[in-house]
Design goal:
The protein is of the alpha+beta class. The protein has two domains: about 170 residues, FAD/NAD(P)-binding domain (3-Layer(bba) Sandwich); about 130 residues, D-Amino Acid Oxidase, Chain A, domain 2. The protein has seven helices and 21 strands. The strands form four sheets. Strands 1, 2, 11, 12, 13, 14, 20 and 21 form an eight-stranded mixed beta sheet that branches. Strands 8-9-7-16-17-18-15-19 form an eight-stranded mixed beta sheet, sandwiched between helices. Strands 3-10-6 form a three-stranded antiparallel beta sheet, covered by helices on one side. The longest helix is centred in the first third of the chain and has 19 residues. It starts with a strand and ends in an 18-residue tail after the last helix. The chain binds flavin-adenine dinucleotide. Flavin-adenine dinucleotide binds next to helix 1, helix 2, strand 15, strand 19 and helix 7.
């Protein structure tokens, strides 16, 4: 008898599995390795919402746990995944400069927003009004981290590459039985595919498709996350990533011409040099109607749990939501109301 089954190994399932390893709990992870948003994600973390110049929910604690979890992945897997990279917000006009000056003087934003407006010598960066630095930002190579972690779990024989067949799940009062496996609890971390889970498909999950372009620029640009409407981030040498799109209508997993055109247009707001496109990927963000994650157990089956709704911010949310869910299950600590699945019990018919 295992303590847990985990279904899904994106950033959510991986963080939860890491927590179980650290706590010495027994588990088996099942993953179909399909349509994984976490492998498409660039993995940028940024505690500031740059459209409104406000801090994200739980910003400091999310940052702390993000560094803790991904450092633990680094130690366990012997590879580097976290790269601290400043974000340079390109300022569009005099009004934005005024807003920046006001916001960067606010005590809660001071640790994150530099009060200095800078200019670059690089002629290819389109910033006639200058740019300003957002601190404590960077990138986690989520795709690499997750695939290395899968290799680790396979070696430990606690990972199966298979699609979970919901019709084979037998739920009993004190355990679940799935094929040849018995466990005390099951945690579903299926990302957008939760809509195919008959136990949790009542939840108001709206997929938001996103695309990312890989380009090669004519010359190297300075290492930073250059941010206007979209961002441009050099990855290595002249290879850069630029993203993203937000499409709630087309929920297919394929990259599109429309997405490419849109990203090229937004790229012009940042970069004026020549480039060629070398890759394009698409994925679907698991977003909840109220833009908050979703955690907890099923209203009718107490040993069925969910960890989902990471939306646009899986890198920062994965670790903290794992802590919330683990503490709820093992220590009976209530889940933060904003992320608690109980807010949607009324949706279950
Ligand atoms: C273009 C794009 C760019 C993004 N950039 C960023 C970024 O820079 N920073 C950031 O923080 N976030 C970013 N995101 C958002 C981020 O990708 C998501 O928040 C996060 O990946 C969601 O993780 P997840 O584990 O919930 O889902 P997923 O990563 O989708 O993982 C779900 C897993 O469950 C498995 N699964 C599902 N159903 C089953 C089943 N029945 N049986 C077995 N396995 C199953 C799938 O195979 C998959 O591996 C981006 C997203 C996109 C699309």
């Amino acid at each position: 008898m295992l303590e847990y089954i985990i279904v899904g190994q994106g950033v959510a399932g991986s963080c939860f599995a890491l927590k179980l390893l650290k706590e010495g709990k027994t588990f088996l992870l099942l993953d179909a390795n399909q349509n994984k948003a976490s492998s498409v994600a660039v993995g940028i973390y940024n505690p500031v919402v740059l459209k409104r110049f406000s801090l994200i929910w739980n910003a400091e604690e999310q940052l702390r746990l993000m560094h803790k979890y991904f450092s633990e992945f680094e130690d366990l897997l012997g590879e580097k995944f976290i790269e601290k990279i400043p974000t340079y917000r390109i300022l569009k006009n005099e009004d934005e400069i005024k807003t920046w000056n006001k916001k960067s003087a606010m005590p809660q934003l001071m640790p994150f927003l530099s009060d200095e407006i800078q200019n670059t010598e690089n002629q290819k960066i389109n910033s006639p009004f200058g740019y300003a630095e957002v601190r404590q930002t960077g990138r986690v190579e989520l795709g690499k981290c997750i695939s290395k972690f899968a290799e680790y779990l396979i070696k430990k024989k606690i990972y199966r590459n298979e699609s979970f067949d919901y019709s084979e799940l037998n739920i009993q009062e004190d355990k679940v039985i799935y094929k040849d496996i018995q466990a005390q609890k099951i945690v579903f971390c299926e990302g957008f595919n939760v809509l195919n889970n008959p136990y949790f498909n009542y939840l108001p999950v709206i997929g938001v498709k996103g695309e990312v372009l890989e380009i090669e620029t004519e010359s190297e640009i300075p290492k930073a996350i250059w941010k206007a409407h979209n961002f441009l981030m050099p990855e290595s040498g002249k290879t850069c990533l630029t993203a993203s799109t937000y499409d709630r209508e087309d929920l297919t997993y394929e990259p599109t011409e429309k997405g490419r055109v849109e990203m090229k247009q937004h790229l012009e707001e940042i970069y004026t040099g020549n480039y060629k496109i070398t890759g394009q990927k698409a994925g679907i963000r698991p977003t909840i109607v109220d833009r908050r994650p979703i955690l907890g157990n099923h209203p009718n089956y107490q040993n069925l749990y969910i960890l989902n709704g990471m939306g646009t911010r899986g890198t920062l949310l994965g670790p903290q939501m794992t802590e919330f869910l683990y503490n709820f299950i093992e220590k009976e600590k209530p889940i933060d109301r904003e992320a608690d699945i109980r807010r949607f019990d009324k949706f279950l018919k």
